[in-house]
């Protein structure tokens, strides 16, 4: 297809069956021909350049022979109706797809694309099985985003994620639509949002309590949702019964990586998976203080230029019956080697072996200067190290996959955090050969808790020759404890990665009892900062050796 002009139509009306009007910006080849439609349905304003030429390049998609439609979802920006997260996206998505298929310049075939919330809008529409929907491309998203916000009963609550999303991305348009937008008051809170994330209790969060006390934020954080609503917006089981082809894309340092991988595994239709050295904010190869070559261009193993071209090739195959030049279904960026590899499956089994690494200490594993070690053999002697949690001085959030104001995703030196006396640190000997991690890293940690709630933060890092420790994967877990002060084994997944530690480097695990402001803080009295403010310092224990040999289960590339 030669170079052609692009025709733009603003705020094209899509009238739903209940009379609600959604408005769309339509970009299409200016030649009078019919083409397939690629549509993005979002709540973040279709006018923003990010959705036109940053995440993907819309002009290139039009030049490749597609009509591209950016549509504000119900109740957001140019569209009519009342917005409530997630609940309308299935039915509205079905009707929007069929509307797009009937446009006079449409070939009748429709694909959906988009990331994060507008990745979920694709999955919700696909579950409804609109006849004209031929393929989707959900990026950095999940089948149960409401569940991600809410968490499971008893789990730690990522309140900072919800607060950042609501105040930083959703609130301004909500207030304007209600006619009570006070610009000075709004920006008073927004400009200091990072500081406000430490406010407790989060279920009475002052910025939203002051700006919009009727916000659905309080439904979410207080759990005022019917089981039907929660179950209805969890698409995981429903995805097992659709056959619409889906292109999944994730980032090793994206906050929704676990959700992306879980959704990919649940999906039973034709599918493809790409995971790059990307964060939720950018797909350039920059992840915090690290930059990975071949992260933005010349990606994969099949001579693909960039994420826009992945999408074009995917939709060319399913909407235009063109050959598929991408040969294997799973494509992973191998961090530490700065290259891509293609596989036949995820999780990867054939090329991986599991190795156990044990925590060892004489009971003084506090700080990176303590006696905590990682060893391939368990110690015959049982010991324990004390882990302090002081709610007034929690261990800070840094790096990894985060979506909270004032905090950047990616890899950072966390060695100063490992100097804290409320952080336990276990470090391997210098590696005499490369250590290639590939897959899901799990842990079995023996612990005991002085209260009915036990919190643990686990993080693996790569320690270089200068002693700098760069985070690789991490997790935070909360457990309800039936028998206080009695040891039990906690089994959890730390995270998935494809990362190579170089010869001479060391592998390190650090353990803390808090990760703030990302998660609500355990107040050591059966409550957390989600609902209360008063707490006290307490000590939990991590066990090593003997019959309570805490360990990591690490997937190593063969």
TrEMBL record:
A GO term for molecular function: hydrolase activity
NCBIfam families per UniProt: CocE_NonD
Location of region: Disordered: 365-392
Annotated Polar residues bias: 376-386
InterPro entries attached to this UniProt entry: AB_hydrolase_fold, CocE/Ser_esterase, Galactose-bd-like_sf, Xaa-Pro-like_dom, Xaa-Pro_dipept_C, Xaa-Pro_dipeptidyl-ppase/CocE
Organism (species): Oceanobacillus caeni
Signal peptide positions on this chain: none
Name recorded for this polypeptide: Hydrolase
Every Xaa-Pro dipeptidyl-peptidase C-terminal domain range: 312-553
Pfam families: Peptidase_S15, PepX_C
Cross-referenced SUPFAM superfamilies: alpha/beta-Hydrolases, Galactose-binding domain-like
Keywords attached to this entry: Hydrolase
Gene3D superfamilies recorded: alpha-amino acid ester hydrolase ( Helical cap domain), alpha/beta hydrolase, Galactose-binding domain-like
SMART domains the record matches: PepX_C (SM00939)
